[in-house]
TrEMBL record:
Its main location: membrane. This is Outer membrane protein assembly factor BamE. Residues 30-99 form the Outer membrane protein assembly factor BamE domain. Belongs to the BamE family. Keywords: Cell outer membrane, Lipoprotein, Membrane, Palmitate, Signal. Residues 1-22 form the signal peptide. Part of the Bam complex. It is a lipid-anchor. It comes from Glaciecola petra. InterPro entries: BamE, BamE-like, BamE_dom.
Length: 117
């Protein structure tokens, strides 16, 4: 009986040591944006222009059509490939034109310079 318990304990110990051998995929979700994409945004851009530059937002506020959320999550399957990533960009519109940006990205230098029309 003791031999069986010792054998079970050793097998459990050996299999738990092999957990890093199992391949787990990274799971990306949302809109992947980088600073270059955000740098293309300007004040007074229309919603259609924003969709052309960034694509459709992940979330549009149900109670406020003038707030769009671009969210990107990367859940790493294995620790050795890095930490989990989460980035957000919140765009607020006024009269169907960009009024402000908020989130994890820097506001572009030329943001307050409207596009020529």
């Amino acid at each position: 009986m003791k031999l069986k318990l010792v054998l079970i304990f050793v097998v459990c110990l050996l299999t738990s040591a092999c957990t890093d051998w199992i391949f787990r995929i990274d799971v990306p979700q949302g809109n992947f944006l980088d600073q270059d994409d955000v740098n293309k945004l300007r004040v007074d851009m229309t919603k259609e222009q924003v969709i052309f530059v960034l694509g459709n937002p992940v979330v549009q506020d149900s109670f406020d059509n003038d707030t769009w959320y671009y969210v990107y999550d990367m859940k790493r399957g294995m620790r050795k490939r890095g930490e989990d990533i989460r980035k957000e960009l919140v765009i607020t519109f006024k009269d169907n034109k960009i009024a402000s940006l908020d989130g994890d990205f820097e506001t572009p230098e030329d943001f307050n310079t409207p596009l020529e029309q």
